Amino acid sequence: MTRLDEVAERLRVRLPGLAEENGVPGVAVAVGIGGDLAEEAAGVLSTATGVEATVDSVFQIGSVTKVLTATLAMQLVVEGSIELDAPVDAYLPGFRAGFPEVTVRQLMSHTAGFEGDVFTDTGKGDDCLAPYVDLLAEMPQIFRPGAMFSYNNAGYSVLGRIIEVVRGRPFDACMRDHLFTPLGMTHAANDPYEAILHRAAVGHLGGRPSPVWAMARSNAPAGSMLAMTARDLVAFARAHLADESLRVMREPQVTLPDIGWGTAWGLGWELYDLPGGLVFGHDGNTIGQSAILRVDPAREVVVVVLTNGGNPKPLREEISGWVLEQPEKPVPDPAARPDARRVAGTYVSSTSRTTVSEDAEGRLWLDQVPLGIAAELGDEPFRTELVGWRGDALLPVAPGRGPVAFLGDDGRGRALYLHTGRADVRSGAPSDVRADARADARADVPADARAAVCAPGRNGG
Question: So which residues are the signal peptide here (predicted)?
Answer without folding.
Answer: none
